[in-house]
Amino acid sequence: MNNLFKIQETLASGSTSKVKKILTIDNKEYALKIMPKCIKDSKSFIKEISIHKSLINTNIIKYIDSYEDLENYYLVMELAKFELHGFIECDIGINPSVVHFLIKQLISGIEYLHNKGICHRDIKPENLLIDSNGTLLISDFGYSTFFRYKGKYRRLKALAGSKEYISPEVANENYDGELCDIWSIGVLLIVLLTGTLPWECPVLEDQRFKTYISMKYHYYPPFTKIRGKILHLIRNILVAEKKRFNINKLKNHPWVLEETTVNKSNIFRLMPIKENFDILFTQPNNINKTSFKTELKLSQPIDNCNQISEQHRFYKNGKIEEVKREIVDLLKYMVVPHDIIDDVITFNTTDTKRGILRGKVFFTKVEDCCYITIRKLKGDYNEFKKFLGIFGENYDEDC
Length: 399
What we know:
The chain is α+β, with helices and mostly antiparallel strands and 399 residues long. The chain is built from ten helices and 18 strands.
């Protein structure tokens, strides 16, 4: 492996894999996804590789190569500069013109997948990348599968995906592969336009979802932030399977057909840009079958001991001890309960929605700078971004 390329910094770290930047001997940069064999079995790896390498499309991250050794599986991919979720401003979202520009590309990529009989099953901001030209790239095919093979259609049964974005039929383990992706696009639209998730999971135990399906009109946030043609589109996506738009109706909707005002020359002027942030390839932990209605058990084996982590980095000139004391003082000032063990601070607090927000703060000395890594262990992603605001006012972002 070391003869083929030089492994550089970590781009992503999740419970099932790590993604690192690599440099080949001819100075080309790629992304390397590393999957431990103790977590991912050979059958699921072969399936992911066979699907990914068959995909050649402008809006799909390019497959380069794959390897394995005694401990890990390796997937080499095109290196994209940005991740979509890094541009989403909490409670605000992204410029609607940019959303329109990106969704048109997403629809094109998903239509290509569906035409090949493949559904993605994990469409969400973390799995959508953007290159320096503003091209949207669909990534992470770990949950992808065939709903049609050699002309034969099948309904799917396995629970797969991220609970906030899956359709109700996925939660019930009986669904149409194409239409489950369409549902995910509907939830994604809400997140991109408002910076808010409409619910935690599309099951009746989730009060926000129960409210949504019980009402014909939705005069409450986040739906009140969305108007006109876009709201009409979302209403025709987030409905029962038999009423849901298919990909053809989706791409021919009046809002989608509108001429875009965004291009590669102005896209990054219309939304805040964060370079080199930590890309998260999330595949949530296995959940006991009896409780899958509120937290989903997924179809791929993963490590039950590790929680999903999301992290952000800041830095400041100075010694670790000095910066650590400042962070402790800041947490005390914000009345955030915390513990200190060696050079790691663990915090456990309540967010603005009265949910649990738990994480760790790590310190790393690099030359004259102290890097501060804040990692979320539990809690809502948007609430975590709010929490990070108290650090952004006092420290420089690593960007």
